């Protein structure tokens, strides 16, 4: 982890992986972002689910093992239980302590469903616990987190899920769609500055992880839609010339120089269907909101 981070900071175009945005404070800031008026994805996806859940449930066929990728507090999956009637629930998240608490709490509400919490960084490999049953598998990946991978990485990741679906499973996924640039830019550069704090907090996290001496006050949040690449880019920009030191290295950042911290790709319905096909999925049913801002997709293996 330290080597990866240090190499990113020393690269010609400096970068830090967006997974380092999520320390304890970063996760709380992200939860707060989801409540912002400008940050439409969470609320738009929730509206699609609440409006179309009966239809979605018919499409996925109840009684599957529900495998929740990035489960967190398990709230999104829990809302689906009474429609999907999963035979089993497997919650996977990198932050295992928080996950176990959520699963224990959920188990007391749904004692009839077998539940397992698994601590795993599923972005690099997906190994399911050996003791899960043999029913059909339904992977659940809401929130448009797929947008934080490049399309190439997303194809590899989805192909891994397709493989784990075996021949009869599927994937229920939330995907953010291309829309008016002003709407996109406002969602990632909100008036209250919460997304800025979320981005700058990465420097505090790097100070802890690397023993670095970043001063967040010397950096500025930048977020904008890159139309050619169909992605929001987040960067941290040096407000003046800055020397930064950390345990394995040091670097001089010129005024205006940036550290690239996140990409959030936006798809069209067609481009995402093509990506699913490249990953080996056979077909997909989709549901969107009235404005066509977000899409929920059920892809069959
Ligand atoms: C977690 N992920 C889907 C969010 C997104 O929209 O790409 C992360 C985020 N970054 C800034 N705001 C929210």
UniProtKB/TrEMBL annotation:
Keyword line: Methyltransferase, Transferase
MF (Gene Ontology): L-histidine N(alpha)-methyltransferase activity
Protein name listed in UniProt: L-histidine N(Alpha)-methyltransferase
High-level lineage: Bacteria, Pseudomonadati, Pseudomonadota, Betaproteobacteria, Burkholderiales
Coiled-coil region list: none
Location of the Histidine-specific methyltransferase SAM-dependent domain: 1-300
Gene3D superfamilies membership: Vaccinia Virus protein VP39
EC code(s) of this entry: 2.1.1.44
PANTHER family in the cross-refs: ERGOTHIONEINE BIOSYNTHESIS PROTEIN 1
Pfam families on file: Methyltransf_33
Gene Ontology biological-process annotations: methylation
């Amino acid at each position: 982890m330290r080597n990866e981070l240090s190499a990113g900071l020393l690269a010609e175009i400096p970068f830090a992986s967006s997974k380092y945005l999520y320390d304890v404070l970063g996760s709380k800031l992200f939860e707060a972002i989801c409540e912002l008026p400008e940050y439409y994805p969470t609320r738009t996806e929730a509206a699609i689910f609440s409006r179309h859940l009966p239809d979605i449930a018919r499409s996925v066929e109840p009684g599957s093992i529900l495998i929740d990728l990035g489960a967190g507090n398990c709230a999104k999956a829990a809302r689906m239980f009474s429609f999907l009637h999963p035979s089993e629930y497997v919650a996977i998240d990198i932050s295992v302590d928080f996950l176990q608490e959520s699963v224990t709490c959920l188990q007391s509400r749904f004692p009839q469903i077998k539940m397992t919490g698994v601590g795993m960084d599923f972005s690099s490999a997906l190994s399911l616990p050996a003791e899960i049953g043999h029913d059909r598998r339904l992977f659940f990946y809401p929130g448009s987190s797929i947008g934080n991978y490049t399309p190439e990485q997303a194809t590899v990741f989805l192909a891994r899920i397709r493989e784990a679906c075996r021949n009869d499973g599927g994937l229920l996924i939330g995907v953010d769609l291309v829309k008016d640039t002003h709407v996109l830019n406002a969602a990632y550069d909100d008036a209250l500055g919460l997304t800025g704090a979320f981005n700058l907090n990465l420097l505090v996290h790097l100070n802890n992880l690397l023993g670095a001496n970043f001063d967040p006050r010397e950096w500025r949040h930048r977020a904008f839609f890159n139309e050619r690449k169909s992605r929001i880019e987040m960067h941290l920009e040096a407000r003046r010339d800055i020397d930064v030191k950390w345990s394995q290295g040091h670097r001089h950042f010129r005024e205006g120089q940036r550290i690239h911290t996140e990409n959030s790709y936006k798809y069209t319905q067609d481009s995402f269907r093509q990506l699913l096909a490249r990953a080996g999925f056979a077909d997909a049913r989709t549901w969107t909101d009235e404005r066509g801002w977000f899409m929920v997709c059920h892809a069959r293996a």
